[in-house]
Write a structure and sequence with these properties.
ATP-binding; nucleotide-binding; transferase; FATC_dom; alpha+beta; protein serine/threonine kinase activity
Length: 356
């Protein structure tokens, strides 16, 4: 803890560059200075009470700041980075904060062609893994195009460019205009997704086409997500294309059709499973590129730990492979759907993922 907090006094003494920095120092500067003095007294006297007092003070500050951060929904560049307004005139003056766990920032840039390009700026996350997932999605899309049944039914995965900027941050490009499931349900005051799709369609033909796109893309992403083990599919991360209503990394079981999961959902689910099984060797070759060394933290681990992780990973991969390969396609799909819709499983989910 002491090592982590060591650079803090220098940052406090540095002249504030923005209005928000000055407000932060006015609110918490004295408390942070007092906490640092307790740490210094502990280092000089080794009296445990000083360290305990510093810990309590820091925890109170942390709780207060965390509550304040959770209430932030936008960042105005005028207050957080005034120089950026001067250098980049085509940026939006306010940055929207997405209310998910990592709280990514949604930024909009207008290009010289007059079009608006939207990006999600994500921090505290290694986006090189996301980039690899997009590559795998591209490979699966090629497999789906080479199969007669899936190509005829237009089974594809809608992807978006991933641009890693550093080891722990990067940009996600939002190509198509999309809305999160959370925003849609909030806007329509709790109406389920079936009613939302109906209200957004100008005719029954458009509604039927959009519903089919939603169901098929949901089935494709569900099966591919099962193979990859995709998680974090809560309502703020699940998106719908405004034009086609195709799913962009989504896990939502509403508004499929009158037959529920036994109609146009189950059919593409089984087709995609067949295609993935037929190309299992190619998929395994790509998945083998997922290495713990991609993260800077894992590179610091001792060799024995890496060997242990590798052994555990191989066992898990073998278990998954044998589980998916021991059943025929229909049986495996039925088992996966039962697990995904099981109340016993859903009740254990984090409430922020809105399993209800």
């Amino acid at each position: 803890m002491i090592e982590t907090l060591e650079p803090l006094p220098t940052a406090i003494e540095r002249e504030s560059a923005t209005i928000d920095e000055r407000k932060f120092l006015d609110s918490y500067g004295n408390d942070l200075t007092q906490d640092h003095q307790c740490i210094c007294r502990f280092q000089c006297t080794t009296v445990q009470n000083q360290l305990i007092q510093a810990w309590h003070l820091y925890y109170q500050l942390f709780t207060c700041i965390r509550t304040q951060l959770a209430s932030i929904t936008s960042l105005e560049l005028e207050y957080v980075f005034p120089r950026l307004i001067i250098n980049c005139q085509n940026l939006e003056l306010a940055v929207l904060v997405i209310t998910s766990k990592q709280r990514p920032r949604k930024i909009s840039i207008r290009g010289s062609d007059g079009y608006e390009y939207v990006f999600l700026l994500k921090g505290y996350e290694d986006l090189r893994q996301d980039e690899r997932v997009m590559q795998l999605f591209g490979l699966v899309s090629e497999f789906l195009l080479t199969n007669d049944e899936t190509r005829r039914r237009n089974f594809t995965i809608q992807r978006h460019p991933v641009i890693p900027l550093a080891l722990n941050n990067g940009l996600l490009s939002v190509v198509a205009p999309c809305d999160t499931i959370y925003a849609l349900i909030k806007e329509h005051q709790g109406d389920d997704l079936a009613k939302i799709l109906w209200h957004k369609s100008s005719s029954a033909e458009i509604w039927l086409n959009r519903r089919s796109n939603y169901t098929r893309s949901l089935a494709v992403m569900s099966m591919v997500g099962c193979i990859l083990g995709l998680d974090d599919c809560h309502a703020s991360n699940l998106m719908l294309d405004r034009t086609s209503e195709k799913v962009v990394h989504i896990d939502f079981g509403k508004a499929i059709e009158v037959t529920g999961i036994d109609g146009t959902f189950r059919m593409p689910y089984e087709y995609v499973m067949n295609v993935l099984r037929e190309n299992r060797d190619s998929l395994k070759a790509v998945l083998e590129a997922y290495s713990t060394t991609i993260s800077k933290t894992s590179s610091r681990l001792p060799e024995t730990d890496n060997e242990h992780e590798s052994t555990v990973g191989e066992k898990n991969a073998t278990t998954t492979y044998s589980r998916t390969g021991s059943n025929n396609t229909s049986t495996q799909v039925e088992l996966l759907i039962q697990q995904a819709t099981s109340h016993e499983n859903l009740c254990h989910l984090y409430i922020g993922w809105c399993p209800f």
